[in-house]
Design goal:
about 75% helix; about 0% strand
């Protein structure tokens, strides 16, 4: 998941060059708020995603199976709640990119790069679109899943393909790379918007990015 999101952030960064002049202050405020909203969702996604994987370890199923039943029950509930929030966030990221013209300022080449990064038409089993859709659908159509299946979803969220375990070394590298890309994005927003604009619009952007479960 982290590597796939990094590709999306890099595509968005490349699109900043095509940002049009805003005709009204309302248009400008809307664009800045959408950009802030995108950043907040990114930050929540990487923060909780990383924390979940750190807690779950390289083999979440084995970790759950080794716990006393009551501890396993509480732990899997916490993991499941986090996975559901992640599904909502990944859905929000896609909506921010393609449902908000002020953010998606995007010329055809950038839009093509975003589609590739998200993976709508990719044959690979592990794409950001696939991960997001898989996690989000669980909110719409709750399933009777075993604790083992829920633990396996942590591996799925991590972006592993055909593996029962998580490569924690790879995850640490991907998270570091993603956070670096996010800092570049944040820097671009700060150069585009004044401190006063960011202060004015941050609260509403932050509030609108909190998943309903929080």
């Amino acid at each position: 998941m982290f590597a796939q999101i990094k590709s999306v952030v890099e595509a968005v960064i490349s699109g900043f060059k095509g940002i049009r002049e805003f005709k009204t202050q309302l248009d400008r405020d809307s664009a800045i708020e959408n950009m802030l909203r995108f950043y907040f969702v990114l930050k929540d996604c990487v923060d909780e995603g990383e924390a979940l994987i750190v807690e779950a370890g390289s083999n979440p199923v084995a970790k759950i199976n080794a716990m006393p039943p009551e501890e396993a029950k509480v732990t899997i509930k916490r993991w499941d709640d986090a996975l559901r929030r992640q599904g909502i966030r990944l859905r929000m990221l896609q909506g921010a990119l393609f449902g908000q013209p002020q953010l998606a300022v995007i010329n055809p080449e950038v839009e093509k790069a975003l589609n590739t990064a998200i993976g709508y038409k990719m044959n690979r089993a592990v794409t950001l679109h696939g991960i997001g859709a898989g996690l989000f659908l669980r909110n719409m159509f709750p399933l009777e899943e075993t604790d083992e299946k829920k633990a396996e979803l942590v591996v799925f969220m991590a972006g592993e393909k055909g593996r029962a375990a998580i490569d924690l070394v790879r995850i640490r590298r991907e998270v570091a790379d993603l956070r670096s890309a996010m800092e570049q994005y944040r820097g671009l927003v700060q150069r585009m918007a004044s401190d006063a604009e960011i202060l004015k619009l941050s609260k509403s952007a932050r509030e609108s990015t909190r998943p309903p479960a929080e």
